[in-house]
Amino acid sequence: ALTGIDARDNATKDSPGKSFADYKKFLDANGLKGARIGVHRKGFAFNDAVDKLMGDSIDIIKRRGATVIDPADIPTQGKFDDSELEVLLYEFKADLNSYLTSLGPRAPVKSLKEIIDFNEQYKDREMPYFGQDLFTKAQAKGPLTDKPYRDALAKNHRMSRKEGIDFVMDKNKLDALIAPTGGPAWTTDWINGDHFAGGYSTASAVAGYPHITVPAGYVRGLPVGISFFGRAWSEPTLIKLAFAFEQATKARRAPQFLSTAKLD
Question: Phi first, then psi: what are they for 166, rounded to 5°?
């Protein structure tokens, strides 16, 4: 993990006084006692077995001394999906081009446009199953000074922060929110692609707020995580809560690196 200021990343400029060199001091096996935890129910209901596992997790959190507010939903969920994609496309192009340029003259490709052209030239080899739609959409975007980008970024921050995570946490006086990180691992096939069913990390990712996932248990032998997330700079609190949950459940199994999985 990295903490502190990176001169190349403006998002880190507010780190002084809010980040730490060593976060181990926040590990507390009794960290759930007295905490107020909100359940983001809008992040559920995509898999019955996952919901059952989350219900068991909530019971454990209560038994460890936390007060659970259920539901405590982020009211803006789903309202910034379009602007989230807009920002992704703009920043993907800008950041990838910046990275490729930094590699110097020996780099085999120097821009997103060159990657697109290469893929098209050798499409039988590079794209036998899937296309590059997101690449071409990103390439069509302008610089990060464009008004559509700045407007989309402002909307994302407003709806994920002040009107989203901060709003529900202030309203319910919460220390953190929880939701299932995702469902059991899924297959990706060459025809239909990704079979992702659900999970929740969007608001934290868009807001730039901390988010921790730890093992909650298993569904048919496949691991499922529980997410603890909250306000800006709340890493110490989230580490304390997530560690306490880990110690109460001991749900993690060491990976076996199998060539194929035998499901329960």
Answer: -60, -40
Tokens at 198, concatenated: 């659900």
Domain co-membership, 66 together with 92: no
Predicted pLDDT at 8:
84
List the end-to-end C-alpha distance of the chain, in Å, as a whole number.
Answer: 34
Q: Which domain holds residue 242?
A: 40-72+174-249
What region, left, alpha or beta, does residue 55 occupy, with left being phi > 0 and alpha being psi -120 to 50 degrees?
Answer: alpha
Q: Does one domain contain both 53 and 91? A: no
Give the count of alpha carbons within 13 A of 18, CB side only: 14
What local confidence, expressed as pLDDT, does residue 255 receive?
A: 87
Q: How far apart (Å, rounded) are the C-alpha atoms in residues 221 and 243? A: 23
Q: How many C-beta atoms surround the C-beta of residue 112 within 10 A? A: 21
Please write the tens of the pLDDT for every residue from 67-103: 999 999 999 999 999 999 999 999 999 999 999 999 9
Nearest alpha-carbon partner for 153 in 206, 102, 231: 206
Q: Which residue has the tokens 């920043």?
A: 91
According to the 3-state scheme, what is the secondary structure of 64-82?
CCCEEECCCCCCCCCCCHH
Q: Distances in Å between the alpha carbon of 106 and those of 94, 96, 110, 127?
A: 20, 16, 9, 25
